Each structure stands twice: as C-alpha cells, then as structure tokens.
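Appendix C reproduces, verbatim, an entry submitted by the partner laboratory led by Prof. M.T., so that reviewers can inspect both the input and the predicted structure.
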Amino acid sequence: MAARVGIVGAGPVGVVAAIACARKGMQVALFEAEREIDHSPRAATTHPSTLEMLAELGLLEEFQSLGLVARYFQFWDGATKTLVAEFDHGVLRGETPYPFVVQTEQHKLSELGLRRLATMPNVELRLGTSVTDLAQDAKDVRVTTQGAERLVFDYVIGCDGGRSTVRKCLDIEFEGYTWPERFLVLTTLFDFQAALGCCPRSYISDPEEWTNLFKWSRTGTSIACTSAWRNLSARAGCSLRGTQHTSTTRSGASA
C-alpha cells in the first residue's frame, strides 16, 4: 500500500517535496492556507545544488526559462563605488553540470510546481486550507484543518515557514538569531547595471548601509519590460526588527 503523505505549505520547499514524494508513488495531499501563491519579494537566487535537484525532478528547463542565468557575482565597496572582487561559477565545471545560478522569484517555482502537481493523479491540492492542529503516535499522524476536518497520514512534512504550525504543534524549537537591523526590499526597473557597471548579482558593503542587488526576469508577468532588480538593504544601528517589502514599477525608481 502506498504511503500517505501530508505536506503543509505550498512554498518552493513544499511543492518540490510534494513532487518528489508523488514521483515515488506516494499518495500526497498538499495544504496551503492561502488560495493563491504570495508574490511578495522573497528569495531570488537558486544555486547549483538546487538546480541539480530540480533537474532530477524534471523542473529545471521550464524553471530556467522563467529567470536569468548568472555565472558571475561581485562584491563592491559602497563608499567608493569600486569593484572589490568578482567570482566565477565557471570554476565549478566538472563539479556540477550547472556552474551558475538562476535569478528568479521563488513564487515562480511554487506556481510551476503546482501546475506539475495538478497533472499527477496521486496528488490532492488543498489551496485555501489551513492546518490548525496535528498529533502523532507510533502508527500515524492525525491532521486537523480549519473547519475541523480530520485526516490521517503515515507522514506529515512541515514546510509552513518561520511561524510553522507543524513545528509548534510538535513543540519543536525554532532556534536561531534575529538580526537587529530592519531590512528594506525594493523591486525596481531602474537599471543598476547601466548606472554602476555591476553584474546581475552584486553585494555592496558599506559601514552605514549595505545593499544586495539581484537582477531577474519579468517573464510571466504583465509588465512590458523584460527584467527588473531586487534591492535588499539595511542600515546599521537600526533597532527595529522585521522585514519591509516594497514594490515599484516606475522606470526612474531609485533604491
């Protein structure tokens, strides 16, 4: 009898886990609290080891078509606006078939994965369904959804993020450190590569305000231009915690 697997959270980790389990013949139910995938600015770089995994799952060709291939990344001095160092993923040839990263927003991987899952007969997609509780014993895992629906699985995989219901129900600590800075994330059509001479993946150090710049494709959006930039920055000495997301599509927008 095929194993029954419940997966909580339809972000990139959840959908990739669901595809991997379904391809092994397991019966998969994927739960996501939201009815649609969140398009807020989040991760934008996918590294070679992850590209290898996506290739094994048959996702890489389409995923790569949605983003920009970036072979190089740079470190800049923000105060003098000078290049400090450039690194080339090409040195990894022979170590990986993908000596580059792909720059694209994580929601595109989630949506690509959901489209693939919708074609698999052993997968049930439960978008707009929150998991509110779960309990386990040596035999199985019992899941309760919003609306008091109760389901039983052989395994449950928690992919529901930093405020994970799965983790809290199992009393698993979320260890780590919260950075004291408040981070600002901007999406803009301003061309940093033309203005600064930087490459599509650049890290800019500064004693007061550091910045990361990532260029990515607008493929799959309603915006007419072909690419945009993601700007992640923080100011030293700011005691506020959290992340602020801002998005703009003005061609003259400045970060």
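The CA atoms of residues 28 and 123 lie 5 Å apart. Additional entries are available on request from the coordinating office.
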